[in-house]
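Readers of this paper often ask what the protein records in our data store actually look like. The remainder of this section carries one protein's record, kept here as part of the documentation.

:::
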Amino acid sequence: MPVMRLKEIAEMSAEAQEQRLIDLRVELARIRTMVNAGGAVENPARIRELRKTIAQILTIQNEQKLGMRKAPEAKKEDKAKKPAKKDSKETASQ
């Protein structure tokens, strides 16, 4: 199973992408240290997944900088919200 899907990465904000990139690099360094020390790694395929996800995040960031991919827009609250409905009991008693 992939660490993150491409769609999830593309929908993340720039700050969230940076934080996730840092977390993945730290985890990859920890696993590589275990391997180099001669320890047994629980899931050796995890190294490949981490490397792939890091590459995907970097690719999406580069595409956003070059304008090839739109950066996710900040979620804006709808200012034209409908007025709050009154309780049906209140309107019936009036």
About this structure: The longest helix spans residues 14-36. Residues 30 and 59 are 23 Å apart (CA to CA).
